Amino acid sequence: MPALLILLSARDPMDKLWSLRYRREIRAMMVTGSSSADDADICWIQISNSYTDIQGFIARDDERKEIIVSLRGSLSLTDVLMDTQIVLIPFISPGVDAPDGVLVHSGFLAAWNSVALEVLAVVAEELERLGRGYSLVAVGHSLGGAVAVLAAVALKQNFTGVPITRMYSYGAPRTGNSTFAQLVNSMMGGNAFRVVHANDGVPTCIPPSLGYHHHGIEYWQRYEPASAEHTVRCSREGEDPQCSASVPSGGINEDHMTYFGMLATTPFCW
């Protein structure tokens, strides 16, 4: 089974990247920057659910004072079945108080809810033990990116005393309706980074005609190589006709499997 890569930008899409190599389960993690760092000082806990096959990890970086919830993209048939459950339903999840009219992808919500209590419990325990000063980060690629958006909202509402909660998604499809997008935009503001690589077809594979709407802020890497100069910061509203929404959807393609010049199947440490 080929490995995939989840990317997490530290402060900016062009900054240092966290990366994770995974197969059926978490196998290894490293930090990539100017050089490899096989001995990254990070503690982590694997999260998974056999019914939805959602996979990921919760990491703690004591140097950066971050607790990171990272979620895997589609890999198995079960993941694909989650992807295809596109009926919009109310955002009902542990600790989430969503306004009336907020609707989200039923498959993505089922995936998040299958691990939500576990994730929230671990994060709560870590925050209580560590005290103040740690921020929360949710990150994911593809399916994992969509679930990370739901996780970010849940983290933000469950841990109101945490000063900063950030969300990074890479190649994520639309996750909910326009009311959900407004909720994410108002709650996350500039701390939501929705990254799209060139002609990646996954972010547009679920069309607005089905009632879906992207949240902001999109960062569209339009040209190669990956650089700040080749990346456009799009509208805060989410659906910017000058950004990736201008490219017809091609579904899963080469651009979906590569972000910031890193191929999803690149072998890293074990």
TrEMBL record:
State whether keyword Hydrolase applies: yes
Entry GO MF terms? hydrolase activity
Assigned keywords, A-Z: Disulfide bond, Hydrolase
- Pfam families linked: Lipase_3 (PF01764)
Reaction catalyzed: a monoacylglycerol + H2O = glycerol + a fatty acid + H(+); a diacylglycerol + H2O = a monoacylglycerol + a fatty acid + H(+)
Q: Does the record carry Glycoprotein as a key word?
A: no
Fungal lipase-type domain residues: 68-207
Alphabetically, which GO biological process terms does the record hold? lipid metabolic process
Q: Which InterPro entries match?
A: AB_hydrolase_fold (IPR029058), Fungal_lipase-type (IPR002921), Sec_MonoDiacylglyc_Lipase (IPR051218)
Give the family this protein belongs to, as stated in its UniProt record.
Belongs to the AB hydrolase superfamily. Lipase family. Class 3 subfamily.
Protein name, as recorded: Alpha/Beta hydrolase protein
What is the native source organism of this protein? Schizophyllum amplum
